[in-house]
Write a structure and sequence with these properties.
By secondary structure, the protein is α/β, with parallel strands linked by helices. The protein has three domains: about 15-125, no CATH class; about 135-225, no CATH class; about 230-430, no CATH class. About 50% of the residues lie in helices and about 10% in strands. The chain has helices spanning about 5-20, 50-65, 70-75, 80-90, 95-105, 110-130, 140-160, 175, 190-195, 205-225, 245-250, 275-285, 300-320, 330-350, 380-395, 400-410, 420-430; strands at about 30, 40, 170-175, 230-240, 260-265, 295-300, 355-360, 370. The longest helix is centred in the middle third of the chain and has 24 residues, at about 140-160. Residues about 15-30 and about 40-45 have low confidence and may be disordered.
Length: about 425
């Protein structure tokens, strides 16, 4: 018997089995084909809640199995609980009778089995899609995380919106977006046992994926109707890593603080004027085509900022088992880049009344709105880098090895470099 003949027989048997299946109660939210299968529109192919869908499929298949006879046992045990879960998976409100069936099912041991099945299926999917540390080349890794966002955006977006610190998804923050990746966040105890728990030292690895999510969410918000009670305004926060944007702005007088009811509240660096202009122009053109844009640039000493970057890593390590590692070069470049970019943005939009730029000095005990000429001149890159290395080596004992090496960003560990005989003799002579 050839493979083609075998496949034909299997196809016939499957078709006969489907024809023998009893007709299920139709869902008013779907259209059905001649075989009684729901026709799901394209925009609903991405399921907001995959776990609920898995549970719904398990219930439905089990009921259909029992219903091969007179249908009594299947209906008695399961009822229309599968339909209820399926509606909930797609974000629809289930019918009352379906919810009753689901509630009755909940008191039976069967439902726990369904939940277990859904959980197992979800974990299996996580394991399959988990990207091992050091996977392939950097380009391969970047592409893999971007692909994750493209494939699972709706689920990630739903999880993101449910976080209270995202203002129902209106606040875009790449730091928060990183939390959507199991490779980065700690995960549950089961994730750790299965080897799919993340490590916050992988922040750089998941950055391209998190940035992809942020960009997609930005476009979604600009192209969506403005919710009731929300203003047609886009607010950007800019400044180097660890500059204390959120904390400093909350200390300003109420009339000088950012508008938290902006339709988009984008916490970013704006360290490249070219990329920033693209974002700002896109924001202006959204909805009416005359959307006002507020930019809050927070200036802080890169040295003080890096101290907070180290402190945050140590705190997260205690809380999550690993801390987010922001490398020396990223901190240096975002500080130097954002200060240069804000000057260029002021010049570019000086005649545009829709763009309002505020300069915040966060180098004092109380942050103040000021002007660019009052901002301290930037330190030389080599001075910043040397100071960062010194601070990092002093903090090494409080950091994980992975965080320490990630923050060195490819540099040799200064503490592992053995001194020469001449250096040692010099240290003795000079009393070091």
């Amino acid at each position: 018997m050839t493979l083609e003949e075998l496949q034909k027989i299997i196809g016939q048997q499957t078709s006969n089995l489907q024809l023998k299946m009893p007709a299920r109660e139709t869902n008013p939210n779907y259209e059905y084909d001649n075989m009684g299968q729901p026709i799901i529109p394209e925009f609903r192919e991405n399921i907001p809640n995959q776990a609920l869908k898995i549970g719904a499929d398990a219930l439905t298949k089990t009921r259909d199995f029992y219903n091969t006879g007179n249908g009594f046992i299947g209906e008695l045990l399961i009822g229309s609980g599968g339909d209820a879960l399926e509606n909930m998976a797609y974000g629809y409100k289930p019918k009352t009778e379906n919810l009753i069936d689901l509630g009755l099912l909940g008191v039976t041991p069967f439902l726990s089995g369904v939940k277990g099945l859904a959980s197992t299926a979800k974990k299996t999917d996580q394991i399959r899609n988990f990207i091992p540390k050091g996977y392939g080349s950097k380009t391969q890794t970047d592409k893999a995380f971007k692909r994750k966002v493209d494939e699972d955006f709706l689920q990630m977006q739903n999880n993101y919106k449910n976080r209270p610190d995202t203002f129902n998804g209106r606040k875009i923050d790449t730091d928060i977006a990183r939390e959507q990746f199991s490779e980065y966040n700690k995960g549950s105890w089961l994730d750790q046992v299965l080897g799919i728990s993340g490590n916050r030292s992988r922040g750089k690895e998941v950055h391209k994926g998190a940035n992809r999510f942020s960009q997609t969410q930005f476009d979604e918000l600009l192209n969506s109707p403005i919710p009731k009670g929300i203003d047609d305004k886009v607010t950007f926060l800019s400044g180097g890593a660890g500059a204390g944007k959120t904390s400093s702005l909350s200390k300003l007088p109420k009339n000088e603080q950012p508008n938290l009811f902006s339709k988009v509240y984008y916490d970013t660096n704006l360290s490249s004027s070219k990329k920033a202009i693209k974002k700002i122009d896109k924001a202006i053109k959204s909805n009416t085509g005359k959307t006002p844009v507020d930019i809050f640039y927070v200036n802080r000493s890169p040295i003080d900022s890096f101290k907070d970057v180290l402190g945050r890593n140590i705190r997260q390590q205690k809380q999550y088992g690993s801390g987010r590692a922001v490398d020396i070069d990223t901190v240096k470049n975002t500080h130097l880049g954002s200060q240069k970019a804000i000057k260029e943005l002021q010049k570019h939009y000086k005649n545009n009344d829709l763009v309002n730029i505020k300069i915040i000095n966060n180098n004092t005990a109380v942050p103040k709105v000021t002007s660019l000429d009052k901002i301290p001149k930037p330190l030389k890159p080599e001075v910043i880098e040397n100071k960062f290395i010194d601070m990092l080596t002093k903090a090494k004992n409080n950091l994980s090895e992975s965080s320490y090496m990630e923050m060195l960003n490819g540099r040799a560990d200064p503490l592992a470099i053995k001194p020469t005989i001449g250096r040692t003799a010099g240290d003795i002579i000079y009393g070091y």
